[in-house]
Amino acid sequence: MHLAYLDAGSGSLIVQAVVGGVAGAAVAAKLYWRRLTARYRRQRTDRS
Amino acid sequence: MTIPHTDVRTDPGSFRDPANRVFYADGEVLRGLDARAARDWRALSASDFFPPLLAAGKVCGTEAVEPARFAAVAGAQWAAVLRHERIPFVSHPYEWSFGMLRDAALLHLEILRAALTAGFTTKDGSAYNLQWRGVEPVFIDVGSFEPARDGEPWAGYRQFCQTMLYPLLLTAHLGVDFQPWLRAQVDGIPPEQMRRLFTGVRRLLPGVPTHVHLHSAMQQRNADAASGEVREQLRGAGFSRELALAAVRRIERLVRRLRPRHVRSHWADYQRTCSYSAADRAAKERFVELALTAAGPPRLVLDLGANDGRYARLAARYAGYVVAVEQDPAVVDELYAALRADEQRRVLPLVLDLADPSPGGGWRGVERAAFATRGRADLVLALAVVHHLAIGRNVPLAQVVDQLADACLPGGRLVVEFVHPEDPMARRLLANKPAGLFPDYRPDEFARLLAARCRVERRVELPGGTRTLYQAVVGG
Ligand SMILES: C[S@@+](CC[C@H](N)C(=O)[O-])C[C@H]1O[C@@H](n2cnc3c(N)ncnc32)[C@H](O)[C@@H]1O
Does this entry carry the keyword Membrane (chain A) (predicted)? Predict the structure, then answer.
C-alpha cells in the first residue's frame, strides 16, 4: 500500500499498553493472541 | 452589539483541528468552537479538574464570551467563542533549553493525568500545546480537551514522543542538542529515525527499549491496520482507564529522571573569565539602568546575547517583560534554572542564534512564525555582542546596526556596547581571521552607522578605555 495511506498511529496505541506495566503487557498479549486465533479460524472456514 | 475590529487575523498555526480556530482581534486572543467543541467546553468548565488548573495558572486564562459579539471577527459559524489570556511573547520548542522542554513535558503529563482521572483526555500531545509566562510553562490548547472514551489509549502519545520525549532523550542520552531537530521537522522526530541512533548498548538506556524500539517496530507491524480497528481490539482485550493512567505515570517518572548531557561550553564561565574590571562593570550597569528609566517603563525588552542574564534581570526591574536571547543551549539552561530558583517571573530565556534566527516553519512557512515577525521591542539591549556578529560571523557592520535597529519598535531605544578592536576579547576573535579582513570595524565607523539609523542620546566610554556604550532612539 502507498505510504501515505498507512496509519502510523495504530502501533503507537498498542505500545501504550506495554508502557502501562505488567497488566498492560497482558492486554497487548491478549490482543495479539486474539488476532492469531481469529486468523486461524478464518483459515479453517476458508478451507471448509 | 458587535464591536468594530480593525486588526483581525486567524492564527496560521491553529488549522489542524477543524473543530476550533484561534483569532487575534485588536490584541485579543479568541477561539471559535463548533457545536461539538462547544459541548466539550461546557463539560470541561463544569468538571472537577479543569477549574483548579485554570486557577493555578497551569492552563492559560480562558473565559466564554458572547459569540454574537464576535461574529464580525470570527465568522458566524461558531457555536461558542472563548477569550484567552495573551501570552507575552510566543516561542517555539526549538527555542527552549533542555530544562524548559522537560518542564513543559511534565506539565503536559500532569494535566493529562488530572484529565484522565476526571474522565477527560487530550486529543493530542504536542510540544506546541505549551507556551511560557516567563519561566512558567502554560498549557494553551484548551480546544484539545474532550471526554475520554473508556478503554482507549491516549491519542497524543505519538506526538508526545516525537516532539518532547525523543528530543529530551537525544540530549540526555547522547549529548546532542535537540533544537535543530525540532526546528527542521514540525511534527518532531519519527520513531524509525530515533531507532537508528540508539543501536548497540544504547538500546538499553532508560526509555529507549519501549518508547523507541518497540514503538518503531509496532508502527511498522501495524501500519496497515486502521487505528479505529486497533482501538476496538485494545478495548476488547481489556485496556482500561487505569492502564492509560499507569502509562502516563511511568512516562512522567522517566521524564523527571532525565538530565542533560551538555558539552561544557566556553560561555558558561563567561562572567568569571571575561575581561571586565569592577569599575567597567559598575559603569556599564549604571548606564543600562539609566537607559531603562529614560522614558516610561518599557513593555518589552529584548536582551540579545544575554549570557547569564545579568542585564536581563536588571531590565526586569523596570520592564513589563524581558526576552533573553542566547545562542548557547547550555548557557540558556543554566539561566532558566537560575531564574526559576529566584522566582523571577518576567524573563523568558530563549535559545537563538542571531546570525541564524528561527525562520518561519510548518505549512507554507507560516504555521510557526519566524522570530523576526513575533514582535519588536520597546528597548533592545545588545551588550558585548556586536563583535561576535561582525567579526565572529562576518556580518557587515552596517547590517549588524540595521538588525539591531529593526528589532526595536519605531521610537524604541537601542542600548548597544561596541567593543573596540584593541580590546582583548575582540583581539581574540580577530586572531582567528585573516589580518585586515575587517577594515570597517572601528569605533568611529560604528558611531557613524549608528547615527545614520538612530538619534544617539548618550554615550559613555568604559573606564578600561576599549568599550563604548550608546543609548539611541531608533528612527528619531
Ligand atoms: C561577551 S558575552 C556578553 C554577555 C552580556 N550581554 C554582557 O554584556 O555581559 C556575549 C554573549 O553573546 C552570545 N552570542 C554570541 N554570538 C551570538 C549569536 N550569534 N546569537 C546569539 N547569541 C550570541 C554568547 O554566547 C555570549 O553569551
Answer: yes
Contact B178, B101 (CB under 8 A): yes
Query: Is B201 in the A-facing interface, judged by CB distances under 8 Å?
Result: no
Length of chain A counted residue by residue: 48
B316 and B335 in contact (C-beta within 8 Å)?
Answer: no
Residue B173: half-sphere exposure toward Cβ, Cα within 13 Å: 21
Provide ipTM, 2 decimals.
0.83
Per-residue pLDDT band for B169 (boundaries 50, 70, 90) equals very high
List of chain A residues whose C-beta atoms are within 8 Å of the C-beta of residue B225 = 7, 10
Backbone angles phi, psi at B361, to 5 degrees: -135, 175
**Residue ranges of B 323-342 with Cβ closer than 8 A to chain A:** none
Digit-coded pLDDT (tens) for B418-442: 999 999 999 999 999 999 899 999 9
Q: How far apart are CA B24 and CA B31, in angstroms?
A: 9
Question: For residue B27, is pLDDT > 90?
Answer: no
In sequence order, the β-bridge partners of residue B321 are: B300
DSSP code of B374? S
| Contact of B360 with B368, CB cutoff 8 Å | yes
Report how many Cβ contacts below 8 Å link chain A to chain B.
104
pLDDT, tens digit (0-9, with 9 covering 90-100), for B270-289: 655 566 789 999 999 999 99
What radius of gyration do chain B's Cα atoms show? 25
